[in-house]
Amino acid sequence: MTQPPRPIATPCVKVCIVDGESNICLGCYRTLPEIGGWSRLTDPERREIMAALPERRTRIRPEKLGLLGN
Questions:
Q1: Which residue has the higher pLDDT, 8 or 56?
Q2: pTM, entire model
Q3: Where are the domains of the chain?
Q4: What distance in Å separates the CA atoms of residue 3 and residue 10, rounded to the nearest whole number?
Q5: What angle do CA 23, 21, 46 make, to 5 degrees?
Q6: Of 12, 13, 51, 59, which sits most exposed with the smallest number of CB within 10 A?
Q7: Contact between residue 29 and residue 53 where contact means Cβ atoms under 8 Å apart
Q8: What is the 3-state secondary structure of 19-69?
Q9: For residue 19, pLDDT beyond 80
Q10: pLDDT at position 69, please?
Q11: 28: phi then psi, degrees, rounded to nearest 5
């Protein structure tokens, strides 16, 4: 019997709005190429991106984040 596939860790919060100024999603702080290729990345690649997300949040103007309650 085969094992079901394990879930892929993701920072997605189902708020997909990309900021044109920073090119970062206002919900998860990833870029469009990262979002699109997420399922093809290795676990170490995903962990590296996820570690960078808190810093990326600082690249988005606070008033834009306020629109989403972030």
A1: 56
A2: 0.83
A3: 18-62
A4: 21
A5: 20
A6: 51
A7: yes
A8: ECCCCEECCCCCCHHHHHHHHHCCHHHHHHHHHHHHHHHCCCCHHHHHHHC
A9: yes
A10: 66
A11: -115, -10
